[in-house]
Amino acid sequence: MIIVLKPDATKQQLDHVLDRIKALGLKPMVSKGTERTIIGVIGPEDALRVQPLEVIPGVEKVMPVLKPYKLVSRDFKPESTVVNLGDGISVGGKALVMMAGPCSVENRQMLFETARAVKRAGAQVLRGGAFKPRTSPYSFQGLRDEGLKLLREAAKETGMRVVTELLDTRDLKMVQQHADIIQIGARNMQNFELLKEVGQLHKPVLLKRGLSATITEFLLAAEYILSQGNFNVILCERGIRTFETQTRFTLDLAAIPVIKKFSHLPIIVDPSHSTGEWEYVEPMAKAAIAAGADGLIIEVHPNPEVALCDGPQSLLPKKFVKLITEIRKVAKAVGRTV
Hints:
CATH architecture of the largest domain: Alpha-Beta Barrel
Strand content: 15-25%
Helix content: 25-40%
Oligomer: single chain
């Protein structure tokens, strides 16, 4: 249920409406737009039918939300959300955000070399996995806390922000300490306890679409985070499983305009994981920006031949420089900047 207040509603009237919602055992979420203040109501809505809120001073109308996701929808927040990352970097505005780095933090030398290279090319966010969810239990699992510390050091030296993945609620405090953006990977998109934990933070969350998740399931996963009070959510389309085997996954570019239509959350694209081969990264990255993505997250490695994780899809630094040059052309054509 969504409650729309009148344009001239006072703070006292807003507070009174919030008090009435709480008295009914429901949870209010406030969205203050440029013209209207909207209150999303979470919980069993039968109470609102018994005690209607339309009669309360300051209330213009009460609307049901037919979509299963409430807070994520544009019904609740018509304006697009811009997630502020600090240092003048944001996701969802006119400027595109570029996240780049190795799939996993392997050692200090490799990480710092990559961080310096992607920073020079124009990336604002350093990506790198300290905890790696791998299909095989015998594959490299990441450097864990050592990897987190190296990411923080490299980001501090280069003036970048850090995005890294959280796998387990037990590691939340450690990851939160070193990361500027907490990534929830595709395999954890429906790890609801993990989503609720990051939902109680104010730190930005990068939520990747699950391997076989529908768009509705994707947005409902984001709803878990918003329902806990954290509205700093960035969605990431990273490819889904289809019958096609020529690429690692199938990059669902149509998801970008669909999500933009139904949700106010920003969305970026991962052309590395979706294609699985470095030569497809640039064309799909350009297509993603043309389709309306708010940024990219790309794997870069100084020597992909010896990478411990996802070498075939990693760009060499010089290839990343070329990609950024091409992205600037596409961004200009669609009214964005890099």
